[in-house]
Recover the amino acids of this structure.
């Protein structure tokens, strides 16, 4: 289970989409697409039951949010739990929201900036005692608008050896 964490517009979905495209063993589990967390939980369980890897593409802004995915992973023996924190500054996320188009749930710049403000105030960095096995933090310069297979593979290796 790969848990993505970060503010809205930090680059999580861009990475998750590229991960699924270049490494089809990973299935992107995204609340914006599915509508609510329970559907994402079901997709994650189904994915793991099929022997695939789940990439949880949500903000996962605090330990309570991340605990759902850790508990699901622990339902399956031998599942590694990795975390990637998209450590994108608030200002960069705000600028991305100003130019974002066609998002399934953020339908205006104003709404996006409001959600960013609320989530930013509540965001908690992951702590080692949460139950995951590996973690990395990606700065904006370590992320891409378009990821090649080798870009994604390099990030996965970075997590694997963290």
């Amino acid at each position: 289970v790969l848990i993505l964490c970060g503010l809205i517009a930090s680059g999580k979905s861009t990475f998750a989409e590229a991960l699924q495209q270049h490494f089809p063993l990973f299935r992107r589990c995204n609340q914006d697409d599915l509508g609510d967390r329970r559907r994402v939980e079901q997709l994650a369980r189904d994915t793991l039951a099929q022997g695939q890897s789940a990439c949880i593409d949500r903000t996962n802004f605090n330990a309570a949010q991340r605990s759902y995915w850790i508990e699901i992973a622990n339902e399956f023996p031998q599942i590694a739990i990795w975390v990637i924190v998209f450590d994108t500054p608030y200002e960069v996320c705000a600028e991305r929201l100003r130019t974002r188009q066609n998002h399934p749930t953020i339908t205006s710049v104003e709404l996006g900036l409001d959600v960013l403000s609320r989530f930013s105030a509540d965001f908690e960095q992951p702590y080692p005692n949460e139950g995951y096995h590996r973690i990395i933090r990606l700065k904006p310069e370590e992320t891409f608008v378009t990821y090649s297979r080798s870009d994604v593979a390099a990030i996965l290796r970075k997590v694997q050896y963290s």
About this structure: The chain has a mean pLDDT of 92. The first strand starts at residue 2 and ends at 6.
